[in-house]
Amino acid sequence: MPNNHPEEPRPATVAVTDFHPASTPTEASLVSRRTALQLMDLSRTVPSGTDAPSTEQVAIRACDALIDGYRMHALVAGAGAPVVLVHGLLGAAAAWMPVMRVLAREATVYAVDAIGIGQSERVRGIDGSLQASARRLALWMDHAGLERVDLVGTSHGGAVAMCFAAMFPQRVRSLLLHAPANPFCMQSQPQIRFAGTRIGRRVAHWLPAAPSWVHQAALCRMYGDPTRVRAGSLEEYVESLRRPGTVEYILSVLRHWVPDMTALVPMLPRLRKLPTMLLWGAQDRAVSLSSAWRLRAVLRAPLEILPELGHLPFEEAPELFADRILRFVADTAGRASVVPLRTA
Prior knowledge:
single chain; Rossmann fold; nine-stranded mixed beta sheet; two-stranded antiparallel ribbon; globular; disordered C terminus
């Protein structure tokens, strides 16, 4: 979709948050998801009498469902108001685990794998459109007994979340969008068009078997600081990508990309009735920060920019990212006052 309008000036209401990275990438906040999964005990509970359980004490368990006859995987932790996390195009529920361990202190947090990726079932010929993805998310919520949730989406998952909120506004208590794929972002259009060509499809099928340095370079590009890539993260992305059927799911999403973004435009004004917030990493190389200004103007939503962070702040700075979710949810629910952020 062509951008026929000049970029909107940055409003004074945009907040910029100070970020102080951990001293070393081996700290607990960067614990390997693979190790966490191996240590997971589904019967484990937080010890009684603990006011603020550490992230290591939080149990994360599976919460799967059959949707349209296919297994849809999800993770769940904590107790409290439900928060649902929707991953990006190449992501999975496991990518949210560092954030889940923080959110679970105050909420029941769910992270869902889209059918076709992560630990969910692969389905030949799956409809990867936004509306189909939103409908499957609604069916999963029905199965989980969730009537109304605080919805968090990142990247392509942010576009799914926007579509879901437009289709089922009564089921969304608040909407937090981190660098959502949106109609105003043009920088990925050449790659999306290339993926639709015969050569592009061949390259896509080659990528799972590509040399490790290719995978490493792609992941590092998603971080604001490549030295903060979390241990085990690369292996988890590659393992999911190599499962038969994953590439077909990704290509299905990309085939629908242009019509999906076009269809999303008239949906966006509907979201003004919902409490909505935008988060963006200042170093995001996947979804352009320049598109945030136009999206903010259409949604009439506050925008917070996270300096030094890239496209995966939930991995790069999980404590900070979880804090932003909890503050927004608390503010929306009127349960706590929010400390004013330093404005740009």
